[in-house]
Stage 0 sporulation protein A homolog
Amino acid sequence: MIQVLIVDDEVLCAEGVKCTVDWKKLGVDKVYTAYSMKQAQKVFEEQEIHIILCDVEMPKGSGFDLLKWVKDKKLTPVSILLTSYAEFHYAKQAIELGVIEYLLKPIEQGELLEVFQKAVQTVIEKREKEKNVRLAGYWNEAERSRVQHFWRAVLSKEIDQDSTAIMGQAQREHLVFNENNRYLPILFEVFASDTNRDWTDLAETLQYSLQEAEYNEWEQVVLAYHDNCLLSIISCAGDFQEYDKKLREGCNSFVRNCRKKHNLLAACYMGEFRESGELARQYEKLLQLERNNVTEYAGVFDYRSVQTINYTRPNIEYWTDLFTEGNYEKAYNEIEIYVNNLACENRVNGEVLNNIFHDVLQAFYIAVDRKGVQAHLLFQDEESLKLYKSATNSVRDFKCWAYYMIQKASAYVELAANKDKVITRVKQYIKANLNEELNRKQLAEYVYLSCDYLSRIFKQETGVQLTEYITQKRIQEAKRLLKETDRTIGEIAFSVGYSNWAYFSKVFREKNGETPAQFRCHYRSGR
């Protein structure tokens, strides 16, 4: 579909052009007219215009003003200007605005037809070019996807880890693969100081930083199999030592760009040039190196620098005693000093941090259990689970988890120690949920205590067993409803937590010496 707009403040001129040309023969579907810049702008806002014929001299906005407005709106119609004056500066402005023809009035019909034929052909060619660019984009995207899928299959060992087998698979998938090349994997990682940043944004930043680096010929950049990492596979046919040097310079440039331009710490973990059959093994070593970088050191690391660190168990018993005694701040300070010292001495990696995490967790669970608090219920909220999952990612994440865990637990341990507050919370919960099923386990979970501990302190503080108290409150509410409402016995039974009407009547009679119906009757007869 092709649409034309004719703009001229002389109505007869505009309409004359519209009536003169055989638009259907040209392949034009719709022709609009406007008699001022304002009217033309309205047409552009409502319709998609492909060709515009515009008079230069118009009051309240010239043809040049209109074309500048069109350009500012990022619209790209084929433009033709019409004027009564052969002024040089007019022609110069027309060229600057991308006008394809500059016509002088009066214009002959044949010349006008030729100009519009040229404009229509320009529209058709422009559409074809846009289509080809779009198709090329689709093709390139599909090709990138195919290549990424192939390398992921290599890295995940879906293809036999043999260079000949890998080359054969590449040939079957019609991918360019040189059997004489050697391949080097590089794993890029970023440490975001803002933990709320989305990984999609980080991935884009990562790829952009790679392009900005001094060495920008990164090949086969693919998303790795876990967050905040990208993997690049570099191929080289020879002169590996020189190429390796250039790659290291590029990696250092990438690390600098991340820090300077994006306020991100970044690390590069480099393999070495080997046959394709060794890529998966190198990748596993790079991941191990990445997991062991728990101190979030920025820089360029060689996969051959993986080292074993022996774990020396800290004084967990002392930390347990600090937790038990309620000295939470000191407990956290001791843990923080311990891991900071390990980090400064380069004696902590992923495995060591994982061991520390489980030892601290054990000490903490022992301490809160002594207080009667159920730790597994205390940390079921979304934030607790999030910090728990990331605790061994880095020393920073571990300290965040430890601080949150200790702060939250200390508040609930103090609550557990304050029996009056615990009993008040339990009573309030019972009152608000009389129509629901209530039991010891449910109430204990509500205040993060063990069933036995809650039952014991409840009896000590109230002189009544917890289950008996619940029954008393149910019957008390039932008596109120029998007095003040006309609801049926069955409805009242259900509203105070009894699904069985007969059982409700039995319990009511045991507590009051009469059935619910008798109680209501006696109450009302006494009015």
In short: The two ends are 88 Å apart (CA to CA). Residues 163-305 form a domain with the Alpha-Beta Plaits fold (CATH 3.30.70.270).
